[in-house]
Amino acid sequence: MNTTIKEEEGKMIALFSGRFDTLAAVQAAKDVQCVIDSDCKEVELDCQELEYISSSGLRIFISILKSVKARKGTVIVKNINDEIKKVFEMTGFNKLFIIK
Prior knowledge:
By secondary structure, the protein is an alpha/beta fold. The chain is built from five helices and five strands; from the N terminus they run E-E-H-H-E-H-E-H-H-E.
């Protein structure tokens, strides 16, 4: 899995591609630490190229959400495929995140 972080127009964007499984989550946690530590109030998690997400991946999404909410910001999850959408619905994540 690959994680790319970029800043654009005052927001941070995390692009995820591949399979966000338990093994990939270790590196992804390191990759997104800058998002968690930043003071940016608008964060997008772009999942256009994400094929799969495990519970470890979901935990990282929650870590990002908690840090951004603590600074009164918003997290938007974009471009999820049908399989990941089902995971979000089963876990209730669709009620925690803004999904576009």
